[in-house]
Amino acid sequence: MINSSTYKYLNAQETPFYYYDMDLLKTSLATIKEEAARYNYHIHYAIKANANPKILSLIQAYGFGADCVSGNEIKRSIDNKFPSNQIVYAGVGKSDKEIEMALEANIFCFNCESIPEIEVINEIAKSKNKVAKIALRINPNVNANTHHYITTGIAENKFGINPWEFDQILELLTELDNIQLVGLHFHIGSQIVDLSVFKSLCLRINEIQNWFLEHQIIVDHINVGGGFGINYHKPDEEPIPDFRNYFAIFNEFLNLKAKQQVHFELGRSIVGQCGSLISRVLYVKNGINTNFAILDAGMTELLRPALYQAFHKIENLSSTDEHENYDVVGPICESSDCFGKAVSLPKTKRNDLIAIRSAGAYGEVMASNYNLRQTAKSFFSDDIQI
Ligand code: LLP
């Protein structure tokens, strides 16, 4: 929610830009920390969701680790003071150079996605006289019931190791001296709002654990990944997802052995609701069937609507007039450069300030310079001097 003094400040800035409500982020972080502490759960923030240094340094101050998918994400995490022994590193295509730097940084664990990857990590670790700690990223074949582009845990996806490879992996691990198996890792998709999906994941993890137990293997930790969704339709009513219920599901359904730790990799649920993309109306144009509100922000600043037909709530911060319907579009030379069709907004005119809400996750990080657009700036509520 943007109050009138914040509006005045934002309206004086050159648009488009990202605006982050740092109080909301702090409250979210405090909530997660408290709810996770009930069960001694370990949280790694998935920095792919938002790697803005100011956001990162606030998150690390709450004691969370980092979940990275590239060498540069590892570097960015360390630069922003995430302890390297709390960094997990996933990804189906880790390059030799990235593996080397992760080994040199002594990260907590590699989440390995294939047999050839484990062999390469072993070789590189051997050349450095190190032992790499790994978790097996297992494809549990659980459907996340989310957009097919962000489903990752069903058999046809490229992610993870499939159960029919387990025998071969155990044999291999006895031969590889520079690999230590410390965990099992799962991540089935993103923007999961149906909590029963996480119950199914737990039950499947229990089955998989049983297989490993039958083979005399008890790993130190189970990493259940991320994926907890946010309410894009009601950002003000539900600014913080229900972490209490979320963690309670894992506590209820996950069977742990001995002193096994549970790790999470949360991205969107931490940062999604604290960010808005702020833009200005350039033109209102009458089409044949509809009015277009043409913004100075487009798919170059926020790709999600164009890429996934994702819904983001759109608000006109400058008008309280009667509502009309608008197709809200950007200036980019692509028909998919559309933030919403037939969006009901107060009567909209040139220069009105528009907020596209719930853009804190996978917004700024997925921006591009297509059409040679300038990278949008970011502003933070705690920097605003009113
Ligand atoms: N762990 C792994 C291994 C992942 O691949 C991801 C996200 C996460 C954790 C964090 O998931 P989260 O808690 O944020 O759902 N660009 C898409 C989302 C892609 C998610 C990729 N993986 C979007 O804008 O919806």
Automatic annotation (TrEMBL):
It catalyses: meso-2,6-diaminopimelate + H(+) = L-lysine + CO2. It holds the Pfam family Orn_DAP_Arg_deC. One of its GO terms (biological process) is lysine biosynthetic process via diaminopimelate. InterPro entries: Ala_racemase/Decarboxylase_C (IPR009006), DAP_deCOOHase_LysA (IPR002986), De-COase2_C (IPR022643), De-COase2_N (IPR022644), De-COase2_pyr-phos_BS (IPR022653), Orn/DAP/Arg_de-COase (IPR000183), PLP-binding_barrel (IPR029066). It comes from Ancylomarina salipaludis. One of its GO terms (molecular function) is diaminopimelate decarboxylase activity. This is Diaminopimelate decarboxylase. Homodimer. Its EC number is 4.1.1.20. The modification N6-(pyridoxal phosphate)lysine is found at K48. Pathway: Amino-acid biosynthesis; L-lysine biosynthesis via DAP pathway; L-lysine from DL-2,6-diaminopimelate: step 1/1. Its cofactor is pyridoxal 5'-phosphate. HAMAP family: LysA. The active site is at C333.
